[in-house]
Amino acid sequence: MLRANRKLTAIVALLTGVLAPATGLAHAFPVKSVPRVGATVSAAPNAVRIWFDGELNALFSKVTVRNAAGRVVSKGHGHVSEKDPRLLEVRLKRLAPGRYWVRWRVVARDGHHTEGRYPFTVT
Predict the structure, then answer these.
(1) SS3 12
(2) Is the peptide bond before 85 cis (omega within 30 degrees of 0)?
(3) What does the pLDDT average to over 58-84?
(4) Do 89 and 104 meet the contact criterion of CB atoms below 8 Å apart?
């Protein structure tokens, strides 16, 4: 019986050591954006804002917006909000009607990198 308990304890310890680090690894993923992913808007926005489910590392997180021809229409590479470490935002130049692509790259506070892109359209 004592040997079975030791074996069970060893198995639990091993599994805890293997699985525990995986639960601590988190990436920052978008949960909301303005304009929304794939949205068609009648009024051109003056900024793009993306909220994430985790805090971002301001030094390594950026967002840019390009028009259909691939020209950058955002002002700079964006920044993490000082008031909300989960918000990545960038100001935009004056947008004409057309399709635009938002590309974001972030590093979460835990050091993990995620990136993505999505379109929106101005009519």
Answers:
(1) helix
(2) no
(3) 97
(4) no
Note whether residue 99 is domain-resident: yes
In this prediction, residue 27 carries a pLDDT of 86
Task: For residue 36, give the 3-state DSSP assignment.
Answer: coil
* Cα 57 to Cα 48: distance, rounded to the nearest angstrom: 18
In a domain, 118, yes or no: yes
Looking at the 3D structure of the chain, how many domains does it have?
Answer: 1
Whole-prediction pTM? 0.78
- What pLDDT band is residue 19 in, cutting at 50, 70 and 90? very low
- For residue 120, give Cα distances in angstroms to 47, 100, 104: 12, 5, 14
CATH of the domain at 89: 2.60.40.1220
pLDDT tens string 77-115: 899 999 999 999 999 999 999 999 999 999 999 999 999
Q: Are 109 and 56 in contact, with CB atoms under 8 Å apart?
A: yes
Spatial distance between the Cα atoms of 48 and 68, rounded to a whole number of angstroms: 16
Residue-wise DSSP of 39-98 = -EESS--SEEEEEESS-B-GGG-EEEEEETTS-B-EEEEEEE-SS-TTEEEEEE-PPPSE
